[in-house]
Write a structure and sequence with these properties.
By secondary structure, chain B is mainly alpha-helical. Chain B has 14 helices and 4 strands. Chain B has a two-stranded antiparallel sheet. In chain B, strands 3-4 form a two-stranded antiparallel ribbon. Classes of the chains: A alpha/beta, B mainly alpha, C mainly alpha. Chains A and B meet through α1, α3 and α17 of A and α2 and β2 of B.
């Protein structure tokens, strides 16, 4: 019996080894070859139907936009492919097509922080400046769609953060919206003693992408930066550390409530709407929800927005938003290019704003009087976006943002001093951005 | 030889629930068995075997990630790197700071997996056995309680994760009950305990159910005899109950252990990715996959598999978990053990005799 | 040895009734204490199992805007969350249908293959039996992530030796589910078949049936409860599965119920509709719980026989 057993074992091992050899043989090639999507050699005259992939259309605005295009272009229909509402899943889906060199998603809505990664991997078609110019678009948005000095996508919609505040309480105390952190603290000192259960300020401090946005704002508003203009990490400067120090001190002193360390956007909005915060940093979507008159908001008519405060002057918001790009592997790039222009046109951008509350990417729309009346926060948002700074542009953005979150969260949880945290972060970023 | 061994075996083999009579069907049924079992094995080969081989292959390759400094583009292709994906843990550690201090991220997740497994399985066993003891003594309402016990098992893990996430919110009901404002959903020791509570809630009733079934096979006269002999409740528990439920309990605990070691849904759904205090190896491999590092993802998941196999092996060897439960294999193993002991006693180096056990024979 | 049943010596004067009275168990304080403890224990068990689920139900009955409230009973009680679950943009109805299709098909397939395989493993004698059983257990030892990526690549045409692209199709949801469903099914069925007495088949064959007929006419009807139980257990396991369904069903039309639950989002992408999520969770779980309540005896028998997750 033991002989039979041993024989069986040997056979099994041999079979496994053999199978391994076979799979190693029929594998993808081991020869590296650069893949590019140079602007030259691309057929921009090919026209026909294409697809457009983006995350879930939560605002319900795309049906109308696509209907408009499709009725005007009967032979070049655009079909929408709705992906997951989660950013990570959208990215994974697009990456799978890219790696399979599939043009299944002709045109894709790419988050601003993925653009470098997609461009470097050759999944996005470089846009020639003559065919697809970027005039009239917000500079910060165009910068976020540029990689290695080449434009790889059009800005599609932008986003910036604003400081929501309780106008009624500040007016009562005779104060204006704060422009610096010190002013914000002073306002809190004056107003809070009379308010029960209210804390001073909160943003998003849970360990996720929102934390990267918030700490980027703190660092940039203190005069520091994560990466210099030529892509070198520079985070262990006194200015950058000062940004992190402010957030850490704010937690220590109670300016930011202790449980805000578990808050994403929704928890903060809930606290602000329930009257538990005097100041709140969040995206524009909060405006419509906080102004709802169905009883869900306790602060209807009592709040307003202002640009973010900084260390010694006005603060710098993080640039959010999406870019719209063309897959390197799709057919009908001519149609795709025209579709991009259509999305970036003034009429479509207006529809995005009016129906979907999406911040437009054209400078002209922020000055429009009618729109400003309809959206009271529009001019503040425009200011915020114009001076906004993008998060670090990196091909390995996923690792970069995790490293930033690691450093920030451990400092906030009092596990490490801010200077040491950013010292470590500098080393990590140097390794990642080689 | 066969007669003596067979009788001894009949004594030491654990109680068998079916009689072992001579079975007309079970002689030389190799071809029929092959026909019946081959569809199953083919499917398993296709959906499990081939992916495992592909995973092995993936783990020894590395995808190019260096950016060309002039064009900014990444070259395609992957290269064979042997065991580099495995040894990189020691050569290029990615130091993170979880609950266990500063260490490489994979080592940190190993500690998390071990901690979760030991604590969760320990707690679920204690709770489950306690539940079983209570239910065994009760006279009425057993059916209702049994139905209630199946509810945690029926809820999808993701729904459970969302539910517990709401309960453990900093303003949630758990903090109201505890009376303090504990930040369960941050990245600290409390996050670990939140995951443990959620996991134990889901699985303790299951262990309770299995133990109850084992308890119900113990005849009551045994307890009565013990009581007459003066044994108190604790002695009855440790000397009678535990040994008799041990086989079923050990198998249940083994399967639960294997499951907990692969835990993914609960920490991911409740606490979130990127939090080193609860990051398990499964989560880490998943994140590496998202970062396009397929080689290291495959390597880490294979390391987890090796860990699981080692633990299963220890269970079978040290605790005698009778996982396969096949009398034939059991009898063969027992016989071989006996033969080894006899050979040792005789100080001979005679080769082991061929097994004389055939199913259905000689166990009258 | 119990003296209660010993017959009294012939010369005893104790009558049967007096003996019965003497032998009645004393209902002293200790007895009542233990009874109370047991009842308390049972109450604890029921509370333990039901409380979080109660919380889920309560959360789904709140007003949509009060998802994070912590009162123990909502005031006012609102059923608004339930219709909200079925809004067209959530595609939840379709997701439930997908779950039913995938779970049912996988269960039927595994039963088909599993019955044959389990019969061989339980009844027949062949040299590879231990090996086969070990392989089946080993299948449940692999981390899901190890199988997931290669399976994904296999079914989306990334390998030249398998040029099919089944992304977002039912077969891509069903076949990978076999990787955990089939071992589970075979394991449970083997345990059930082992419990059936051997004499039945022998008697049938003595009466002139062929082994195949004996199997069909005698064994299958007797094993029906076990098969039924295994079907329920496999159905629930596939219904609750998340990773495979998430990977292969990326378009909303191919979400299963559990995947759909994970994707609920409000109108702005950031706001999380807790009420709707809890309502969806209740809707996913309630059919399973009803089924579990109806079939609880069978399920318990099945779980304890198989000793499997």
């Amino acid at each position: 019996m033991s002989h039979a057993r041993t024989t069986r074992r040997v056979l099994a091992a041999a079979a496994t080894f053999g199978a391994l050899l076979v799979t190693a043989a029929c594998s993808s090639s081991a020869s590296p070859s650069a893949s590019g999507s140079a602007a030259g050699g691309v057929n921009w005259d090919e026209r026909g139907p294409i697809t457009y992939a983006q995350g879930k259309d939560t605002a319900g605005v795309w049906k109308g936009v696509l209907a408009e295009w499709n009725s005007a272009h009967p032979n070049e229909q655009v079909t929408m492919i709705e992906l997951s509402p989660e950013a990570d899943q959208q990215r994974a889906d697009m990456i799978k097509r890219g790696q399979a060199k599939s043009g299944e998603y002709s045109v894709m809505s790419v988050d601003v922080v993925w653009t470098s990664e997609f461009a470097a991997n050759g999944w996005l078609q470089e846009l020639p400046a003559d065919k697809l110019p970027t005039t009239g678009m917000l500079k910060s948005a165009v910068d976020a769609s540029t990689y290695f000095n080449k434009v790889y996508a059009y800005p599609q919609s932008s986003d910036g953060a604003m400081l929501y505040y309780r106008k009624d309480l500040l007016d009562k105390a005779g104060l204006q919206a704060p422009k610096t952190w010190a002013e914000m603290q002073a306002a809190c000192d004056k107003v809070l003693p009379d308010q029960k259960g209210m804390s001073c300020y909160a943003g998003q401090h849970q360990k996720y992408e929102g934390l990267t946005c918030n700490i980027a704002e703190a660092v940039n508003s203190a005069g520091g930066e994560f990466i210099t203009a030529d892509g070198k990490p520079a985070v262990n400067t006194p200015a950058a550390v000062a940004g992190l120090q402010w957030m850490v001190d704010a937690f220590k002193s109670g300016m930011i409530p202790a449980d805000a360390i578990t808050w994403k956007e929704e928890e903060g909005r809930q606290a602000f709407q329930d009257g538990k915060l005097l100041f709140h940093r969040n995206w524009p979507y909060v405006w419509n929800l906080a102004a709802k008159t169905d009883g869900s908001s306790k602060i209807v008519g009592k709040f307003a927005v202002a640009p973010l405060p900084g260390k010694d002057g006005p603060g710098v918001s993080t640039l959010g938003g999406h870019n719209i790009g063309i897959s390197s592997f799709t057919k009908n790039k001519g149609t795709a290019g025209d579709f991009l222009k259509f999305i970036a046109s003034e009429s479509t951008q207006k529809v995005f704003l009016e129906k979907g509350s999406l911040a437009p990417i054209l400078e002209s729309l922020y000055a429009d009087a009618a729109l400003n009346k309809q959206f009271p926060y529009l001019s503040t948002l425009g200011e915020s976006i114009k001076s906004a700074k993008a998060r670090p542009k990196a091909v390995k953005y996923g690792d970069v943002t995790l490293a930033i979150q690691d450093a920030t969260y451990s400092a906030l949880q009092k596990q490490v001093e801010p200077a040491a945290a950013f010292g470590d972060l500098q080393t990590k970023l140097e390794g990642l951005l080689k | 030889m066969s007669q003596g061994v067979a009788t001894t075996l009949a004594g030491i083999t654990p109680p068998i629930t079916e009689k072992r009579k001579k079975n007309l069907l079970s002689d030389g049924q190799g071809t029929l068995a092959a026909i019946l079992i081959s569809p199953t094995m083919l499917v398993i080969l296709f959906v499990v075997g081939i992916p495992i081989l592909l995973s092995l292959r993936e783990s020894v390759y590395l995808k190019a990630t260096a950016v060309d400094p002039t064009t900014g583009l990444i070259p395609e292709g992957e290269s064979f790197v042997g065991l580099a994906n495995f040894t990189d843990i020691f050569n290029n550690p990615q130091t993170v700071s979880g609950v266990w201090g500063h260490m490489d991220r994979l080592v940190n997740s190993f500690w998390n997996v071990t901690f979760f497994t030991v604590v969760c399985v320990g707690l679920e066993t204690i709770l489950g056995v306690a539940m079983a003891l209570i239910m065994a003594r009760a006279f009425r309402g057993k059916g209702f309680v049994r139905a209630a016990i199946l509810i945690p098992w029926a809820i999808p893990t993701l729904a459970s994760a969302r539910m517990w996430g709401l309960i453990f919110d900093s303003n949630g009901v758990m903090n109201i009950i505890v009376g303090q404002k504990i930040l369960w959903l941050a990245d600290n020791v409390y996050s670990q305990w939140a995951v443990i509570v959620a996991d134990v809630w889901k699985t303790a009733p299951f262990i309770g159910l299995l133990t109850l079934a084992g308890l119900q096979t113990i005849p009551t006269d045994v307890y009565e005899a013990a009581r007459v002999d003066g044994a108190n409740a604790w002695q009855q528990f440790t000397r009678i109950t535990l040994p008799m439920v041990k086989p079923a309990l050990v198998v249940a605990v083994l399967f639960r252990t294997l499951d907990t070691m692969r835990m993914f849904d609960l920490p991911w759904g409740m606490i979130g990715p990127g939090k080193y205090s609860v990051e398990t190896i499964s989560m880490f491999a998943y994140v590496e996959n998202n970062q396009l590092r397929y080689g290291s993802a495959a390597a880490y998941s294979l390391l987890l598999f090796a860990y699981i196999v080692i633990v299963a092996f220890l269970f079978v060897r040290l605790l005698g978990a009778d996982v396969i439960g096949d009398e034939e294999s059991r009898a063969i193993t027992a016989q071989r053990k006996k033969q080894k002991e006899l050979a040792k006693a005789a100080r001979g180096r005679a080769p082991l005799a061929k097994s004389t056990i055939s199913s259905g024979e000689a166990q009258a | 040895m119990s003296t209660a049943t010993a017959t009294p010596p012939a010369a005893s004067r104790v009558t049967a009734e007096e003996l019965a009275v003497l032998n009645k168990p004393s209902r002293g304080g200790k007895y009542w204490a233990s009874q109370i403890a047991i009842v308390a224990g049972m109450a604890f068990i029921v509370l333990y199992c039901i409380a979080p689920f109660y919380w889920m139900i309560v959360s789904s009955l709140r007003l949509p805007t009060e998802g994070r409230e912590t009162s123990f009973w909502p005031d006012p009680v609102s059923f608004e969350n339930y219709p909200a679950v079925f809004l067209p943009e959530n595609g939840f109805g379709r997701a439930l249908l997908n779950s039913v299709i995938v779970s049912l098909t996988t269960t039927l397939l595994t039963l088909l293959l599993g019955i044959l395989g389990a019969y061989a493993l339980a009844r027949l004698r062949f040299w590879a039996k231990g090996l086969v059983l070990s392989i089946i257990i080993a299948c449940s030892m692999f981390p899901g992530i190890t199988l997931l990526i290669p399976l994904f690549k296999m079914f989306t045409g990334a390998y030249s030796w398998m040029p099919i692209n089944w992304m977002n199709t039912y077969q891509a949801l069903i076949i990978p589910s076999l990787s955990f469903g089939l071992p589970l099914c075979v394991w449970n069925l083997t345990a059930f078949f082992r419990q059936l007495p051997v004499e039945l088949e022998q008697a049938a064959m003595v009466d002139g049936c062929s082994p195949g007929q004996a199997f069909r006419k005698i064994i299958l009807p007797l094993a029906a409860p076990g098969v039924f139980t295994t079907a329920i257990i496999t159905f629930i396991a596939v219904w609750n599965e998340f990773m495979i369904a998430l990977t292969f069903g990326t378009q909303q039309s191919m979400y299963t119920a559990v995947v759909s639950l994970s994707k609920f989002t409000g109108a702005y992408g950031y706001d999380t509709p807790w009420g709707t999520i809890m309502a969806a969770g209740v809707l996913i779980t309630v059919p399973l719980i009803i089924g579990v309540l109806i079939f609880q005896r069978r399920i318990v028998a099945g779980l304890t026989a198989g000793g499997v997750k």
